[in-house]
Amino acid sequence: MNASNIDHVPRIFLPRWIPTNVGTISKDTRTSLAAELQDTFESHFSDWKKEQSLSSAEALVAYAISTERPFDSSIACAAKFVIENAPTSLSAKHSKELLEGASPLADTTIYHKIASTRRIARKYPFSALVWSDLAYYHCLTGNRKSARAAAIASDHVSSGAPSEVLPFSRCMVHLDEPEHALRSTRASLKLNPTPAVISTEMAICQILDTSTKHYHNAIKLIASKNITPQEDAKLRASIATEFVNSGSDRKAKKIISGIQINPDENTLAQLVWLSGVLGLELNPASAGLKEANEAIARAAYQERDYALCLKATEGWCAFQPFSVTAISFGSYVAGFLTDDHERSLKLLQQGQIVGAESFTIWNNSAFDYSKLDRLKEAERALQMASRCAITDEDRDVLNATTGLYLIRKGSAASGEALYRQSIKNFMSRKDLRSASIASLMCAEELSRVGNSDAATLLQEANKLAEEGKHPRILEAVQMIRKKISKGFD
Amino acid sequence: MSPQASHSRPAETLVGKDIGNGWTIVSLIKRSPSATGGKFSVGYEAQHSDGRKGFLKAIDLTEVLQAPDTMKAMQAISEAYNFEVTICKQCKELKNVVSIFEHGEFSTGHGFPGIDKVFYLLFESADGDLREILDREHRHDDLIWKLRTLRNVAAGLGQLHASGITHQDLKPSNILGFSENLFKLGDLGCSSAATIIGPRDRVRIPGDTGYAPIELFYSGHKQSFFDRCAADLYLLGSLIFFHFGATSAKSALIAARRRIPHEITNIFDLDLPHWQQAFAYSLDELSESMGATNIPLPVANGLIELLSELCEPNPARRGSRKRIAAKPDQRLLLRRYESKLLHLERLAWTLQ
Q1: Is A27 exposed, middle or buried (0-12, 13-18, 19+ CB in 10 A)?
Q2: Which residues are within 8 A (CB) of B349 and not within 5 positions of it... i.e. 6 or more apart?
Q3: Pair (B207, B91) in one structural domain
Q4: In this complex, is the C-beta atom of A115 within 8 Å of any C-beta atom belonging to chain B?
Q5: Is residue B159 a contact partner of residue B96, using CB atoms and an 8 Å limit?
Q6: What's the angle, vertex CA B9, arms to CA B5 and CA B11, rounded to 5?
Q7: pTM of the model
Q8: Which residue among A52, B6, B201, B260 has its CA within the 20 to 30 Å range from the CA of A204?
Q9: Is the ipTM, as predicted for this complex, more than 0.85?
Q10: A144 with A138: CB under 8 angstroms?
Q11: Mean pLDDT of B304-330
C-alpha cells in the first residue's frame, strides 16, 4: 500500500536550501558612494577613447564592474573589444557577462557541479557556503557520506553567520543528525539572534520533540518591531506552529492574525498548513509568489483538487529536489489519489537517490512498480524497504505492499493473507486510516483476479473510512468501485 | 601669442620656468587627477642641468578660491600638501618608493600677488606606469617580468609599512617603472601614517573606489594602522588579478557576486560569507583563465595560494594563515610575500 504522513503529521518547516551559485542576479543595494570618494572612471574612459587599446578596454571594463556602473554603450564597446582580442582572459569572461548577463551553471550536470565546487573548495577552503553547496550536490547524488564531510567542513570554517548556519542545519537534518544542527543553530543564536535562525531552531526542536530556548527571544523580536515584515511573518508562523503543537489553537490564531504582509514561500506553506489545522481561509495563489509550490500543493490537497496538487508538488520537488517529504507526498497523491503510477515513479526515482534510507520512498516505489507489473523492480524496492523499515507500522505497511506484489506475481492466496494480516494489525492499533487503505487496495487487487472476497473488502474499507472520518479514502473507495464495475483493462 | 598665455591658472603656465637648484620645467603632462590636490594639481616634466629628469606636481590656489567653502578647501589643500611633503621626506631613502627631489613655492607673475603662487613637489621621473610599460614593451606574456614587478611592489609596500606608512591607493597607474628590474610605488597622497595625522585618515575609502577592499564599503570598519596594512595587502593581491586576469580583485569579486542570490545587508559580518564565496569563485575563474595561457601550473597554483591570503575578504584573516593563530601581529608582514614572489620568479625561470 502507498504511504504518506502528510495527512496527520505536521511538516517541519525548516529553511529552504538553495545552492547559492544557481540563482538569479541580486538587486544591488550596496552602500552608495559619498562625494569625497575617489573615482577614476572618467580617466579610464578617456584613456580608452584615446588609445583604443586592449589594456585600456580591459581597465575600463574592470572599473565599470567594480564600481557597479549601469551598463551603457560606451562600456559595451570596450567589452566587445576585449572579447574579440583576448577571448580566453578573465576580463573577456566578465565582458561577456556584462553584455549577456551572468550565466549560472544551469546546463551542467550534477557531477560537473560537484567537480567544480570541490575544485573551488580546494583552492579556497574558507568559504562555508562553498562547502554547503558541495554538501547540497552530494545530497542530490545520494552520497550521504561525502555530503556529511562537506557539511562538517562548512561548520568548521563558519563564522556563525545565519547564511552559513541555515544551509548547514538543513543539511544535517537531511542527514538525520538534527542534534548537530540544533547545536550549531544555538551557537549561532548566541552571536546573531536573527529571526531566520530562531525559526530554524524552533523547527529543529519540533523534530527532536524538545522545547525551544528562543520562544521569548522571538516574542521580543516581534514586539521590538526592529525586523522586516517578512521576518515578522516567519517568526509568527513558527510561534503559531509551536502553539498548535501544544494544543493552544486560540493563541495560534491570534499570533497569525498579526501578519501584515505576504510572507516568503516557506512561511506561506507553513501558514497554509496552519490554516488547515486552525480552519482559516488562505489562498496561497493570491500571494503571487513564483515558487509557492508547496503552499499551492497543500491548499489544493485541502480542497481535493488533486490534479493541481500533483502539478504543484512536482514544482515543489523541482525547487527542493532533496526533500523526501515533497517526494513522498507527491507519490502518495499521484499513486493513490490519482492512480498515476508513472508520474509517481518519476518523483520516486529522484527519491531513491536522495532518500535512499527512507522507508516511504522504497515502499511507495514497490507499490507503483507492482501496479505497473514491473515485478523485478518491485522486488528490489521491497528488499530496500524491508531494510529501511524501523517501526511496527512500517512493517505492516510493507506486509500490505508485499501482498500486492504477490498477487501481481500470481500468488493471490499468499498476497491476500499478508493483506489480511496487516489489516488486522492496523485494527489492533486502531489505525483505521491505514486499515481502510489496505482493505481498499486488497479489494482492488482481488477483484482484478476475479476473487469474490473483493466486494466484502470494499465494504469493509468503506466502513472503516466512515468510522475514521477519512473523506479522501471514501472518495478513493468510490473511485475503485467505479473501476471494478467498469472492469479492469 | 605663446601657448602659456592661453592658460588662466598659474599652475598651468610653468613651461620653461626655472625653479632654482638647477631645475627647469620642460613640458606639461596630461595626467589623471590624483588624491593630493585632486583637481587642483597639474603635472609637468622637469629637467635638471645635470640631465636628471623629474616629475613636478604643481598646485595653485585659484581653484581653491572658487570652491563653495573656500576656507575648508584651503585647509584641505594645505593639509594634503604638507602631509605629502612630510611623508615623502620620510620615504626618501626607501628603494622601492618614488623619491622627492624638491618641494617649495614660487610666484609665477600671472594673476594677483599671492594668488599667483604655485606650490610644488618635484619627484624623480619614471619611464611610465605599469600599464603604459606593459603596452609599450609588449610584456603581456612575460611571466617573469610580471612576477618581478609584483615582487618590487611587495618590497615597496614592506618598506612603507616598516616606516609606519600605508599606501592605500595601490593600483597599476601608481606603480612606476624606472628600469627593467626596478619598480617603485608612487603617489603617496592617499597614504596614512602611524604617527602623523593625515587628511585621508577620516575618509572611509582613502584610495580609488574601483580597487578598494570590500570591507571599506561598510560603515563601522576599523581604521587602525594594522587594518590599513591589511587593505594594502588586498591591493597587492589586486595587482595579481591585473597581471593575470586583466582585471582587479574587486572587479572579479563583484562579477562573481552577481551570480549569488543575496541582497547586501550593509552589515559586514552578515555579508561576509557571501563575499568569501564570491572570492572562492573568482579565484577559480582566475585559475581557469591562467590555465588557458602558457603559465606553468606550479606558478599558477602558487599565485592562487598567494591570492587566497592577500585578497581574503575577511580582513581579520588576511595575510599569512600560518601566523594567524601563532603570531597574529606578524601575519601582514610583506617580507614573506616578497620571498614567495621571488621563489615563483625562479620557478618560472626554471620551468619556462
Answers
A1: exposed
A2: B144
A3: no
A4: no
A5: yes
A6: 100
A7: 0.84
A8: B260
A9: no
A10: yes
A11: 90
How many whole angstroms separate alpha carbon A449 and alpha carbon A484?
A: 11
pLDDT in tens, A28-53: 333 444 445 677 788 888 888 888 88
Q: Is B42 helix (H, G, I), strand (E, B) or coil?
A: strand
Residues B300 and B175 in one domain: yes
Cβ–Cβ < 8 Å for B135, A53? yes
Closest CA to A150 of A117, A111, A113, A184: A117
Is residue B112 located within the same domain as residue B240? Answer: no
Whether residue B209 and residue A67 make contact (CB cut-off 8 A), yes or no, is yes
**β pairing state of B128-129 and B165-166:** unpaired
Q: Decide if A181 is inside a domain.
A: no
Residue A249 lies in a domain: no
The CA-based diameter of chain B, rounded to the nearest angstrom, is: 69
Crossing angle between the packed helical segments A178-191 and A162-174, to the nearest 10 degrees:
170
Give the residue from B124, B156, B188 where a domain finishes: B124
Burial B298-326 (b: 16+ CB within 10 A, else e): ebbebbbbbbbbbbbbbbebbbbeeebee
Contact B284 A119 (CB under 8 A): yes
Tell me the residues of chain A between 359 and 418 that have a Cβ less than 8 Å away from chain B.
none
User: Most distant CA pair in chain A: distance in Å?
Assistant: 94
Looking at the complex, does the CB of residue B35 fall below 8 Å from at least one CB of chain A?
A: yes
Q: Cα angle at B103 between B100 and B109, to 5 degrees?
A: 145
Say if residue A146 is exposed, middle or buried (CB neighbours under 10 Å; 0-12, 13-18, 19+): middle
Q: For residues A351 and A347, give the distance between their C-alpha atoms in angstroms, rounded to a whole number.
A: 6
Residue with cell 551542467: A108
* Paired sense of beta strands B128-129 and B100-107, if any: unpaired
Where is pLDDT greater, at A357 or B14? A357
Which three three-digit cell numbers place residue A441? 487496495
pLDDT tens track for A457-483: 888 888 888 887 877 778 878 887 777
Residues B226 and B308 in one domain: yes
| B147-175 pLDDT tens trace | 999 999 999 999 999 999 999 999 999 99
- Give dist(CA A142, CA A217) in Å, integer: 37
Cβ neighbours of residue A391 closer than 8 Å, sequence gap 6 or more: none
Amino acid identity of A4? S
For residue A51, the tally of other CB atoms under 10 A from its CB is 15
Q: Which residue type does B348 have? A: A
- State residue A452's pLDDT score: 78
**B211 vs A: CB within 8 A:** yes
Q: Which three cell numbers stand for residue A255?
A: 499570533
Task: Verify that B119 and B234 share a domain, yes or no.
Answer: no
Q: Which residues have CB under 8 Å from A187's CB, separation 6+? A: A160
Judging contacts by C-beta atoms under 8 Å, the chain A residues touching residue B253 are 66
Chain B contacts of A161, Cβ < 8 Å? 269-270, 272-273
Give CA–CA dist A478/A462, Å, rounded: 9
Query: Among residues A376, A329, A322, which one has the least CA distance to residue A171?
Result: A322
Strand-pairing partners, residue B43, are B29, B57
- How far apart are the C-alpha atoms of B48 and A76, rounded to whole Å? 45
Q: Which pairing describes strands B100-107 and B117-124: parallel, antiparallel, or unpaired? A: antiparallel
Q: Are the CB atoms for B289 and B244 separated by under 8 Å?
A: yes
* CB contact (8 A) between residue B259 and residue A104: yes
Asked if B188 and B87 count as a contact pair (C-beta separation under 8 A), the reply is: yes
Q: In terms of DSSP H, where are the helices of B197-334?
A: 225-245, 249-257, 268-291, 297-310, 321-326
Verify that B180 and B241 share a domain, yes or no.
Answer: yes
How many domains would you assign to chain A? 2
Q: Which residues contact A3 (CB under 8 A, 6 or more apart)?
A: A328, A332, A359, A360, A363, A364, A397
Whether B172 and B204 map to the same domain: the answer is: yes
The single-letter DSSP state of residue A9 is S
Q: How far apart are CA A202 and CA A373, in angstroms?
A: 44
Q: Half-sphere exposure (CA, 13 Å, Cβ side) for B144? A: 9
Q: What is the three-class DSSP state of A178?
A: helix
